[in-house]
Write a sequence for this structure.
């Protein structure tokens, strides 16, 4: 009888338990105010968790684990692009990246400088453990954090037939490789189970980023469990 009662009490808790994916964040201490940038980052993480909820990708949650400054010198050869800076940041952070857990992703961020930065807003190691992005200011919203984070998880792999972006409510879905303001791009993923204006936001055979993301998170979860054993 006691075992039965304990099962009734703890089983709902087990069902509601979430696998936490931790984010280790490093900001450029010369160009980004630590507090204001952190507030934006936490808002971006909240959006990512909302995206999971909207697509019914249950049992997963992203949380900020580390928030520390990082000095990366802005050398002349990459003043017009984020590529070189991303390389420098990755090299500086490589010793600090948590390689013992597949559910930890490291990122580097600073505020966008419209006088020197080019068109690249973010760079991710595809299916890896690191991404770099520029935090937009003002009224423009490009959903760059979520876009690059999901690249790091593995979205954007053209080898998967159904892992492609689409349109939703006449807007480009999140993983489209276009830098557009929020009026032209949505934070939703391609997903045939969601519709806007009576039109599906995907197709199960070609456009279903939501399904692929769920599979990738499940894979990372199992890899992390294997590492911990």
């Amino acid at each position: 009888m006691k075992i039965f009662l304990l099962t009734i009490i703890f089983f709902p808790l087990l069902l509601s338990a979430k696998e936490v994916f931790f984010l280790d964040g490093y900001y450029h201490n010369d160009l980004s105010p630590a507090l204001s940038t952190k507030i934006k980052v936490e808002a971006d993480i909240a959006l990512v968790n909302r995206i999971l909820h909207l697509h019914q990708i249950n049992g997963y949650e992203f949380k900020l684990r580390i928030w520390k400054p990082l000095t990366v010198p802005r050398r002349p050869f990459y003043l017009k692009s984020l590529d070189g800076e991303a390389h420098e940041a990755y090299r500086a952070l490589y010793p600090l990246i948590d390689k013992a857990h597949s559910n930890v992703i490291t990122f580097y961020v600073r505020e966008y400088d419209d006088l020197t930065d080019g068109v690249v807003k973010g760079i991710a190691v595809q299916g890896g453990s690191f991404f770099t992005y520029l935090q937009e200011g003002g009224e423009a919203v490009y959903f760059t954090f979520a876009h690059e984070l999901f690249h790091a998880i593995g979205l954007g792999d053209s080898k998967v037939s159904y892992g492609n972006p689409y349109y939703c409510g006449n807007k480009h879905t999140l993983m489209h490789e276009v830098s557009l303001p929020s009026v032209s791009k949505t934070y939703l993923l391609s997903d045939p189970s969601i519709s806007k204006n009576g039109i599906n936001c995907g197709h199960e055979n070609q456009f279903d980023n939501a399904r692929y993301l769920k599979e990738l998170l499940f894979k990372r979860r199992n890899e992390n469990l294997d590492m911990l054993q």
About this structure: The beta strands are 19-28, 60-70, 104-111, 122-124, 130-135, 167-168, 171-172, 191-196, 199-201. The two ends are 33 Å apart (CA to CA).
